[in-house]
Amino acid sequence: MTETPQRILIVKLGSIGDIVHTLPVLRTLRVRFPNAFIAWAVEEKLADLLYGNTDLDEIVIISTKRWRKNLSFSTLSEVMEAIGNLREKSFDIVLDFQGLIKSGVVSLLTGAKNRVGFSRKDCREKANILFTNRKARPFIDQEHVVDKNLSLLKKFQIEKFQIEFSLKSSPEAETSIHSFCADHTDFFQKPVAAINPGVGFATKQWALDRYARIADRVFRELNLNILLTWGPGEKEKVEKIAATMEENCLIAPPTTILESIALYKKLDLFIGGDTGPLHICAALGVSTVSIFGPTNPNRNGSYGDGHTTAFKKLHCSFCYKRKCPTQNECMSELREEEVFEAILKNTYNASH
Q1: At what angle do helices 257-264 and 276-284 cross, to 10 degrees?
Q2: Dihedral, CA atoms, 66, 68, 74, 77, nearest 10 degrees?
Q3: Do both 93 and 193 map to the same domain?
Q4: Of all helices (H) and strands (E), which one includes residue 61?
Q5: Phi and psi at residue 118, in whole multiples of 5°?
Q6: How many CB atoms are located within 10 Å of the residue 323 CB?
Q7: Strand order in 269-273's β-sheet?
Q8: Per the domain annotation, does 162 fall within a domain?
């Protein structure tokens, strides 16, 4: 593909980690094509991850999850309007980084002549290949998903990539988090480690009582205050950790995506599983210690330096299953001592 694109659409609808891991693609495209019109199609509830990104000309909201839950003449009208809006943009290049049927449909509906996607092997839903007409090379299993995404740009003869993750919060979010920190001045005068037990699906879950004991050790042995962070539907988890801990901790308030970004910038260390907040923290330059089980940290872990991972390598490791056919041994057999060793090896601890 030698032509210079004038109007580019990135299709990466979700999740948090997926969007964060695609940000270097956007930065690279903007540097390579400074005058191009670049838009990003994203699910409505995750659009704030792209807030204030100066590399983007437009955010295109695609509300597939809401449309499916609320089927009606009204939503049908909204879908038709969204399709019309996509076609009116006259994109000449669409890059599908999702690899799903729904992202493929979005790509096709743009009417773009060039629709770039992954090979059949690398699509999360194999039928996605029916909607793209230019394919990336097959993906190497041990490559990180950031590198997988960047590989699509080789169709533009781009070989130099910009590994930058632009995440911004709003003035309102900054004010909200500043107020929270001001209410707990003594707490934030010491370095802070966040512990986040949230996960996207059950097989990623490490035991809450183990998180509590790790939190106590981090407080006692590393002299970090413990902030328990959580997302929608996870407050009971952090409350259980707080009740189990022997040391004091602070539970974060409920936060929007923009408020989470503002809050995570206050951290010195993040400890948690393979979940959105982990990848936000890594993108913000916060040192992370991650706990992995069914997913592969080489592929899905924190990208870049300053991060360590704890995992138990078994014959069935990295199955990516949402329901374990046995006893979820990859998580249940991961000992607290192994996680704490990863914390001790972390760049933050080594430099203090």
Answers
A1: 50
A2: 100
A3: no
A4: strand 58-61
A5: -85, 165
A6: 9
A7: 250-251, 225-228, 192-196, 269-273, 287-292, 307-311
A8: no
Tokens found for residue 126: 């194999």
Tokens of 215: 């939190």
Per-residue CA distances from 106 to 38, 42, 146, 327 (Å): 16, 11, 22, 39
pLDDT confidence of residue 71: 67
The two tokens of residue 114 are 């060039």
Does 44 fall in a domain? yes
Angle at 248 between CA 243 and CA 252, to 5 degrees: 80
Q: Tell how strand 37-42 and strand 93-96 pair up.
A: unpaired
On whether both 188 and 98 belong to a single domain, the answer is no
Cα–Cα distance, 226 to 7 (Å, whole number)? 46
- Hey, what are 236's tokens? 């009971």
Higher per-residue confidence, 86 vs 175: 175
Residue 310's SS3 state is: strand
Residue 123's pLDDT band (cuts 50, 70, 90): confident
Whole-angstrom CA distances from 153 to 84, 160, 190 are 27, 10, 43
